[in-house]
Amino acid sequence: MGLMGEARLGIADYVVFAIFILSSLSIGVYHALSGGRQRTTKEYLTADKKLKVVPISLSLLVSFQSAIMILGYPAEMYMRGAQLYIGNIGMLIGTILTTRLWVPLFYKLQITSTFE
């Protein structure tokens, strides 16, 4: 905090920000230059079903997380208490049902999207 109470970014903040930006940029550049362009829609959407568990898991994790959630959860917990975690029970049940019911159905039908 400065003299007047305004928040300022420090060196550590800029270093972390730069690391995230550079890592994201380097991943994009690597995959753009490493060849292997997608030729069909199936290759683009499903990677010909050749992806391993880790990239798929990370993709799903990032899809469920957002900046609003990361910034908002601590504020909500501070303001209203730990009952916010009750919503996570519903999300857990929904995730289990989705992985046990819908994903196998989509896989059997060989569709890549709910819009097909």
TrEMBL record:
Source organism per UniProt: Owenia fusiformis
Would the keyword Transmembrane turn up in this protein's UniProt record?
A: yes
Q: Tell me if Ion transport is a UniProt keyword of this record.
A: yes
GO terms assigned for molecular function: symporter activity
InterPro entries from the xrefs? Na/Glc_symporter_sf (IPR038377), Na/solute_symporter (IPR001734), Sodium:Solute_Symporter_SSF (IPR051163)
Q: Which UniProt keywords apply?
A: Cell membrane, Ion transport, Membrane, Sodium, Sodium transport, Transmembrane, Transmembrane helix, Transport
Record's protein name:
Uncharacterized protein
Family, per entry: Belongs to the sodium:solute symporter (SSF) (TC 2.A.21) family.
Q: Where in the cell is it found?
A: Cell membrane
Checking PROSITE patterns in the record gives: NA_SOLUT_SYMP_3
Q: Which GO terms describe its biological process?
A: sodium ion transport
- Listed GO CC annotations: plasma membrane
Q: Membrane topology per the record?
A: Multi-pass membrane protein
